[in-house]
Amino acid sequence: MAQGSHEEERNLPQVWPFTLAGLLLMIALAWFCLGFAILDRKPIDSNAKVEGPTKLVHHYTVFWGLIAATVALILFGIVLNMIRRRRLEY
User: Could you tell me how many helices (H) and strands (E) the chain has, helices first?
Assistant: First the structure.
């Protein structure tokens, strides 16, 4: 991405780490909401039976792992673009 044959296109920053971080953030938020949606599947009265899962396994662990991966990708993108800019300046 952001690579071309012209000089002004060659100086553009790399954006793929930030795009991937945004995707991971969306997945983390979906997982977080899904965990509470599955938890809310409790019967209204005591005679009703709920089929299927009522708890999402590793709900918070996966959520915080995806958030940590998002932060790591953002930091990686920042460092990558800083190194790239320094190389282009010299």
Answer: 3, 0
SS3 state at 30: helix
Token duo for residue 58: 């590793």
pLDDT value at residue 62: 96
Q: Which of 67, 60, 53 is nearest to 24 (CA)?
A: 67
- Which of 74, 26, 34, 71 is closest to 55 using CA atoms? 34
| Phi, psi (degrees; rounded to nearest 5) at 12 | -70, 150
Residue 5 has a pLDDT of: 60
Closest of 74, 60, 51 to residue 31, by C-alpha: 60
Q: Which two tokens stand for residue 40?
A: 């809310």
Instruction: Supply the DSSP symbol for 54.
Output: S
Give the mean pLDDT per block of 10 residues along the chain (90 residues): 60 88 97 90 77 84 97 96 84
